[in-house]
Design brief:
73% of the residues lie in helices and 0% in strands. The protein is an all-alpha fold.
């Protein structure tokens, strides 16, 4: 039981640190969002935790970011930004994809999952921006304009997911080798 608790604690701390890294100045969309989702999907044996921990960490960092760094975009304290359901929905889809692809963690699978997570986030979050914000007309032309405007951010999303996946997955694999009690229990 202590072994499982230690493993879950370390996994949670890694995800929390990744979420906190969103507060460090960085290029737009160079963030750990996809990596957090995939990391939880790969390593939590309790599926509910793979979803819950990511969304909770993301929500807490969103609260801080929206009410400090982006405070000038909102009128008063913001519990949830417009379109947040699309962001968290994208995270849930990334976790689901991670569960399917990362049953066995290998560099190739992490790379493929990371690329897929970036595309999922791009597709879902831009659709959410189109639906949630008045800057785009609510027709096909507006939707295409929204996706076109998001293309420059896709590069940073891809680079951020690849970077954070490398750090999180690579770091945890190295730590597991040094601390065998972090390895999953054999059934």
């Amino acid at each position: 039981m202590k072994k499982i608790r230690l493993r879950y604690t370390v996994l949670g701390l890694i995800i929390l640190l990744a979420a906190v890294s969103r507060l460090i100045p960085h290029p737009a969309n160079f963030a750990p969002v996809g990596a957090m989702a995939l990391f939880g999907a790969a390593y939590y044996s309790r599926r509910s935790l793979a979803y819950l921990i990511q969304v909770a960490a993301m929500y807490m960092s969103d609260l801080l970011i929206n009410n400090t760094m982006y405070v000038h975009y909102f009128d008063g304290f913001v519990w949830m930004h417009p379109g947040a359901c699309f962001t968290y929905g994208a995270m849930a889809l990334m976790v689901l994809g991670g569960e399917l692809v990362l049953k066995r963690v290998t560099a190739g699978r992490v790379l493929a999952a990371s690329l897929a997570a970036s595309v999922i986030f791009f597709a879902v979050s831009n659709f959410g921006a189109w639906v949630s914000y008045p800057m785009y007309t609510k027709d096909l032309h507006g939707l295409l304009m929204c996706y076109t405007a998001g293309i420059p951010f896709l590069k940073n999303t891809l680079m951020g997911d690849l970077f954070y996946c490398t750090v999180m997955f690579g770091g945890f694999e190295l730590v597991q080798r040094r601390v065998p009690s972090l390895k999953p229990a054999r059934l």
